[in-house]
Amino acid sequence: MSGQLPAPTPDISPEAAPFWEGTARGELRLQRCGQCGTVVWYPRGLCPSCSSSGLEWFTATGSGRIYSFSVNRRGDGAFREASPFVLAYVELDEGPRVLTNIVGVDPDAVEIDLPVRAVFADTGAGTALLRFRPA
Fold it and tell me: Where is the signal peptide (predicted)?
C-alpha cells in the first residue's frame, strides 16, 4: 500500500469555486449544460459541446470505475515519500473522466473497471482533494 499522499492547497478559479466548496463538504459537484444536457468536467464557463453559458451545478453520485491507471513508483517533490501511488482516470457514473489518485488499496491490486467511490483529502485550508478508493 502506498504511503500517505500529500494534499496541497489548490489554486481556485472563480469558475471552479462551487466544486471546491463541495469538496469541503464531502460532495462531488459537477456541471450540467442546461441547453444540451452534457455533464462537464472540469469546471468552466461554457459547455464544451454546444458553447452555452447555461451550466448548472449538481451533486454527483461520487461513484465510477477505473478507466485507466499507472502505478508511480518514483514520486517527485512532495510525492517522493508517498511512492508507490496510483494515478488514474476514473469514469464517473455521470460520464466524465477525472484524473485522480486511487487510495486505500495496494497499488498492485488496482485493475481496469474496478468500481470506486469518491473520498476527500482535507488540505487544511478549507478545501479537499478529490480521490477515489475501491467501492
Answer: none
